[in-house]
Amino acid sequence: MQDKKTLWELIKNLGFVVGLGIIVFAGVFWSKQRKYHTPSIVIEGQQGNLFVTEGEILETMQGDGRSALGSVLGDIDLRAMELQIKSNKFVKGVNSFQNVAGGVNVQVLQRRPLARVSLGSKESYYLGTEGEVLPLSVSYVARVVVVTGAGVRGLKERGGLKSVEGGQELLELLSFLDQDEFLRALISGVEVTNRQEVVLYPQVGGFVINLGKPKNIRDKFDRLRVFYQKVLPVKGESAFKSISLKYAGQVVCR
User: Running DSSP on this structure, what letter comes out for residue 198?
Assistant: First the structure.
């Protein structure tokens, strides 16, 4: 009697496992046979920069014909689709997956311009937050500091800031200007000389700020703050043509 009961329990358990397997297989098969419709697209890292839009991502996804709307989900190559999206220079990363409802979710991380290099009408491009070269956009213009000067000529051909001598220091300077609220509102232009010294151009005022080499920048900008807080209100902007922060512990005005 006990043997019959044990056998019956074994049959029931086996039937449950087989049934569950059939259900799972049918669910996966049904999911893969569903039609691919407009995916859910989330773009991260925009922060007001609209260099990548949902419409552009969708258009890019369908560019090779392998992810066309109405296709069977099982025929969609998500890896190939991700590579297609990453062909956009402003896309830093992408992750796509099929959700529980059988649709496709796409998460896109956008690169963010940190500065714009302008060397005349024939050479102009953005620098990203990692010093990488980014193209200009026909649909959107970022409000970032403009970098000029002989010290950044040929930067595009050499692959960005991290691939040139002094590039890391310049990247740290540009990042500092971008992250500091006071400096972001104050400085509109950065000139890099052929000696890799930096001249800053304020939004207002008839003077320039000679920073020297982009080293010890926190100390230099602390001195600049003191100048703006205590000297400029007394003397006025018209009293100076240049301000130098090159020398330790000093603000030299001319």
Answer: E
Separation between Cα atoms, residue 72 and residue 34, nearest integer Å: 6
Specify whether 179 is located in the same domain as 236: yes
Within-domain flag for 75: yes
Give how many domains the chain has, as a whole number.
2
Q: Report how far residue 177's alpha carbon sits from residue 221's, in angstroms, rounded to the nearest whole number.
A: 10
**What is the per-residue pLDDT across 70-86, written as a single tens digit (0 to 9) for each?**
455 555 778 888 888 89
Tell whether 119 and 80 lie within a shared domain: no
Amino acid present at 235: K
Cα 13 from Cα 112, distance rounded (Å): 56
What is the span of the domain harbouring residue 64? 40-110
- For the chain, give the longest Cα–Cα distance: 109
Dihedral sign computed on CA atoms, order 78, 132, 63, 141: positive
- Give CA–CA dist 108/139, Å, rounded: 19
Q: Which residues of the chain have pLDDT under 70?
A: 1-38, 46-47, 63-75, 100-102
Amino acid sitting at position 250: Q
